[in-house]
Structure formats: structure tokens, C-alpha cells
Amino acid sequence: MSRYRGPRLRVVRRLGELPGLSRKNARRSYPPGQHGQARRKRSEYAVRLEEKQKLRYNYGVSERQLMKYVRQARRATRSTGEAILQLLEMRLDNTVFRLGMAGTIPGARQLISHGHVTVNGRVLNIPSYQCKPGDVIGVRERDKSKRLVQANMEYPGLANLPSHLEFDKENMVGKVNGVIEREWVALQINELLVVEFYSRKV
Predict the structure, then answer these.
(1) What is the pLDDT of residue 160?
(2) Nearest to 116 by CA among 96, 91, 139, 90
């Protein structure tokens, strides 16, 4: 199974707020299911697994993709946890979401895979493309594409634009100026627990 296609609020109730997955807030603060309200002592493994699942569901990546990012991050000179977050944040689908062109990351992925987004003037339909400093992200010169993005821009997923991005709302063109810094990651997560979870597997 690649991507999660089930009820999103169920995941939000279990793992907490996931801004990339859903814009809705759960009415109940406890996990779903018959034993959701029961207070159970969680093992160390369960705590680490939960942090890893937050990454998977928020960014919409499969287990295989996440392991690939962990291997890449291990080779980086900086902190492994921060490197994982930077690799996930610099994906094209997440960048389109952070620019405000889509309300959620799955919505941004759909825009990209349907050919509405351009990178450096060329249509690119690969959501996992790693954005680099200097990349210009725009909307395809079609009325349908522009209408879709304009409708999404009225209700953006996140209010604040990260410091490594700039966006021209009139022309619907964004630019990547650098690599995202840790404080601009919107997801509440302890990335060190994710590194510890994968320490025996990768």
C-alpha cells in the first residue's frame, strides 16, 4: 500500500494536528476506537513509532520513500533529524502547499500530477521532485489551471510563508531562495525519535 486514502480525521485524532494532511480539527481530543479513552502506558517503541507515523501521514510518503530519505539524511554532514525534515519539506508537493497554491499536501500532489504546475517554465508532474534554490514554481498558462489555483489561494492551508520562499500572488509565481530552516517546519515533531526508530533498520 503506497499512500493513505482512508479517513483523515481518524489519523489526526490518533497522532495530533497534521497541517499537511487535513485542515479540519477533530472534535474529540482522544484517539478513535473502543479503547481510545483508556489510559495506557506506552512503550518507548510506541512513542518512536508515533513520531515516525506523523512524518509519513503529514507528508504523504510511503514507508519505502521515508527509508530512502533517512538513508540520504545519514550521508549529510548536518544533523540527521534536520536533514530528514529538510528533504521532506523541499519536495515539490510540499513547496506548492507552503506557497498557498493548495490547501493540503494531497491537494498539491493532485495539482502537480494533473499537470497544472510548472518548474522553471516546464510542466512537471512529479510530486517528489526535490526543489533547489533558484527554482521558479508557477502555474501552467491555461485558464483551468489558473482558476484552480486562484480558488485554492482564497483558503490557504498555512498563513505564514517560510523565509526560504517568495510568492507573487498576482502572477501566481513562487521562487525557492534557499533551504528551509528548522523553525519554519509547521509540524510539531521530535525528529530525534524518528532517527532512533530507524537506527536498527537502516
Answers:
(1) 81
(2) 139
Ranges of the chain with pLDDT below 50: 1
Cα angle 9, 15, 19 (rounded to 5 degrees) comes to: 65
**Grid cell digits, residue 57:** 501521514
Reported pTM: 0.86
Name which of 134, 139, 142, 164 is nearest 153 in CA terms.
139
To which H or E segment does residue 43 belong? none
| Domain 8-87+185-198: CATH class, spelled out | mainly alpha
∠ Cα 195 199 200 (to 5°): 150
Distance CA 184, CA 108 (A): 19
| DSSP, res 91 | B
CATH of 92-178, one of 3.40.50.720, 3.30.420.40, 3.10.290.10, 3.90.550.10: 3.10.290.10
User: What whole-number distance in Å separates Cα of residue 107 and Cα of residue 183?
Assistant: 24
Q: Which three cell numbers stand for residue 127?
A: 510530486
Domain ranges in the chain are 8-87+185-198, 92-178
Whether residue 21 contacts residue 58, with contact meaning beta carbons closer than 8 Å, is answered with yes
User: Using an 8 Å Cβ cutoff, are 89 and 180 in contact?
Assistant: yes
- What whole-number distance in Å separates Cα of residue 195 and Cα of residue 53? 13
With DSSP H G I counted as helix, E B as strand and the rest as coil, what are the percentages for the chain, rounded to 5?
45, 10, 50
Three-state DSSP state, 145: helix
